[in-house]
Each structure stands twice: as C-alpha cells, then as structure tokens.
Amino acid sequence: MKTKQPLVRRIIIAFTLMTLIVSGGFSLGIVGIVHFIEEHLVTQHMAEELDSILQKDLAQGLPPRLDAKTRLYASHIPGYEIPANFIGLEEGFVEIVDETGDYYLFILDTPQQRFILVQEQAEFEARENALFNVVFAGFILSGLVAWLLGWMMARTVIAPLARLAQQVRHRGQLHTLAPNLAPDYPDDEVGHVATAFDETLGQLRSSLERERFFTSDVSHELRTPLMIIASSAELLETAELNEREHRQLDRIKRASAEISELVETFLLLARANTKQNPLSGNATLEEVAHEQAKRWAPRFADQGLNFRLIVEEPNDMLFHGGFLSTVMSNLIRNALHYTAKGEIRLLLSANGFRVEDSGQGVPSAQQDDIFKPFVRGSEAQGEGLGLGLSLVKRICAHQGWEVRMYSLPTEGSCFEVTLS
C-alpha cells in the first residue's frame, strides 16, 4: 500500500526534485562542454605545434624546440623512442591519467613512422578538478536552497488550508449557527473550498434539524394515543374476559409498553448531543434482563421456543435502563424472528451480555451489513423493517458500548454487547 505523504512534504519533495533535475542538467552540461572544449582546443593546439616541429625543425635536421612540459617521441628516430605505456594507442588526441602523471597526447601516423607529442597537464587537471568541485558544490547547494525555499513556499501555500482545517476542526456543534468561513478567504481555490464547506454544512445542519424535529414531534404526538391504549387496557382488565381474550389483552399491553419504551428512546436520542455523551445509569444488567425475560416469556411459549436466562458473572454497574432495555429487547426480538425451533439464551457476564439463538444464522456476506438500516436477513420472519439492529447500533455508539455479531460453532447466531 502506498504511503500517504503530507501535502507540505510532497510540495517540498517536488520543488527539490525539480531543482535538482534542472541544476543536475546544467552541471552535466558544464562538465560536458568543458570536456568538449578541452579536447577541441588542445587537439588543435597540439596538432599545430607538432606540424611546426615536423616542418621547421625535423625537416631541417634541427632538434625539436619544446618547452619544459612538452616532449616528442618518434618510432624511428634514435633518442626519441616511444615509451611502453604509449604504445598501441590510436591516432589523434588521447588523454592519459595514470600513476606516472596526467598527459595530453597527440599521435600522428605517417607512412614512415609514428610521432607522439606529449604535454603534461597536471596543472590544468587540478584547475579542471577545482571547477568540477565548484560545480558539484553548486549542485548540492542548489538542492539545499531548493529544500529551504520549498519548505517556505509550502508553508505559505498551505497556511490558508491549515487555518481552514483548524476552523473546521473546531467548528463544534452542528446545531449551533456559526458564521460562514468563506468571507475570511479570497476568491481562490481555498475560498472555493471554504464556500463548499459552508454549503455542505448548511445542508447537513438543515437535514439534522429536520430529522431532530421529526423525531421529537412524532415521539411527542405518539404519547397521547399510547396513554389512551394503556388506560383502555387497564379498563378491559376489570371486565370479565375469557382466556383467549386475556391473551389478546396481554399482547396489547406488551405492544403498548414496547412502543412507549421506543418513544422514550427516540426522544432521548433526538435530544442528545451529536457528540458521544453517555446518559447516567439507573438500572443493573440483571434487573433489565429479568424484566425482559418476563416480558418475552409468553411470546416464546406461543412459538414453542425454550428461553433461558443465564447469569455467568455478576455485574453491579448501573446503566441507563431505557437504552439497555431497548438494546436487549431488540436483540431478543431479532432472535425470535430468526429462530423456528430450539432455544434462545440470554447470557449475562461481567462485561455485558450475549443473545444466542439456534436459528439458521446469518450468511457471512451479510454480517457486515446487518446493522445498517432497512437490512434484513434472507430468512427473516415477522413484519420488521430492518431498523431494530440499526437502532441498537446507534444506542451503543451513543453510550460507548460495543455490539458485534458472529456465528456460533454449531448453529445459530450470537449478538454480543460489551458495556463500558
């Protein structure tokens, strides 16, 4: 996987690399031009000097007139024998650098013999090396200067973006009406980003407000008919009813209690801060579990399922009773919908609880999406809309709890909630 570099570092690297490529090209060009001019001028000079020696000195039987740094060698002239290290070289200009010294050689072949004019070039080589060192030092210095300028330029370019990111990071609550960011920036790319953020934040704030008001209004309006249903059920209990009518009345009371609980949960979530702000506790895990076991026992009996409440480890911490009851109730209802036979177990531990069933389980391909809204298993039963597990996920996220689902080794599924 590619490592993502910060934007400042990428600008510095790009600026430095561009400078090094340009300065490196110039440096190589200087070195190449120096070599070309050196070879061209020295070849021309030595060719003229050797021609002068052959025409004016050797042709008249005179010894060659040479300075202290120049020597002449010839293959058939006594006293001018060619040294062993110069034998076998090609005609023309040759530069030799070995342990004996630094030399320029100009070799001329005639039908009669070979002439080699040799010039010591140690002083010129030293100056050439000094020039190359200066070029190399300039290359390194240009890289360092490019890095410094790139850093300064990157900081200057990124400063508006960093300030915008800081303002966005400390924007805080979505429900508070904060001033727009765009007026603080010029009409450039950063200003366009700030404008886009203002527009998106406005749309998001409007959407959240609509959802919040909808949830609050609906939850508030449902309380009146629920109170009527509950009071009517209480009145019906005083009447003379047969066993079947009593069972139907119990179902009405359970459904009314569940809806009231959900309404209270929705109201709490709607009023809660967008940040994670767990509500204080007022009930223990065992109290909520026994209440849910009592509530769901008739439903399990009607469907012919065995239900067991198992306390593996004690847990004396206090949790928000409404939220914990909603989470546990939805997980039990989900197990009931997906279990045709066998049993459902509610297991309490020191860290939370688990709901295990003996149903057909959830395919591994659907396990990642099972907590998304409106997602139901392929073998779902009942009239659910696929919102129960989504609500469980929201409550757990709000309270700082963790919920996960996995398949059991034998058959069925397990939903585990870790309470913190």
TrEMBL record:
Its main location: membrane. Residues 217-420 form the Histidine kinase domain. The keyword Glycoprotein does not apply. Gene3D superfamilies: 1.10.287.130, 6.10.340.10, Histidine kinase-like ATPase, C-terminal domain. SUPFAM superfamilies: ATPase domain of HSP90 chaperone/DNA topoisomerase II/histidine kinase, Homodimeric domain of signal transducing histidine kinase. Pfam families: HAMP, HATPase_c, HisKA. PROSITE patterns: HAMP, HIS_KIN. This is histidine kinase. It comes from Halopseudomonas bauzanensis.
